[in-house]
Amino acid sequence: MSRASKLTLAGTSLAAAATVFLVHYGQQSEKAAMHAGVVRDMEQQRVKRERQADFEMQKELESEYKKVQTVHDGEGEGKAGAGG
Q: CA geometry: angle at 53 spanning 49 and 56, to 5°?
C-alpha cells in the first residue's frame, strides 16, 4: 500500500469515526433534553392538580361558611362610618 492510500484510509476512517461520535453525542443530548421536558411537564401537571385541589377545598369551605353565616358584600359598611 502506498503512503497516499494509507493517509487517505486513515483520514476517511477518522472522519467516519468522528461523524459517528458526533451523531451519537447529538442523539444523547437530544434524548436528555426531551426527558427534561417530560419531567418539567409532569411537575407542571402536579402543581396544577394541587392548585385545583386547593381551589376545590376553598370552594367547599366558602359554601359551608355561607350556610352558617350571613355574608355582606361590604358596600353598606363604608357609608355608616363616614357620617362623622
A: 140
- Is this model's pTM higher than 0.85 or not? no
How far apart CA 13 and CA 21 sit, in angstroms, is 12
Q: What DSSP designation does 75 have?
A: H
Return all residues near 82 (Cβ < 8 A) that are at least 6 apart. none
Give the integer Cα–Cα distance in Å for 55 and 11: 65
Structure confidence by residue, pLDDT tens digits, 24-33: 999 999 999 9
The gap from C-alpha 73 to its chain's centroid, in whole angstroms, comes to 39
Q: What's the rounded Cα separation, in Å, for the pair 19 and 23?
A: 6
CA distance 56 to 54: 5
For residues 40 and 52, give the distance between their C-alpha atoms in angstroms, rounded to a whole number: 18
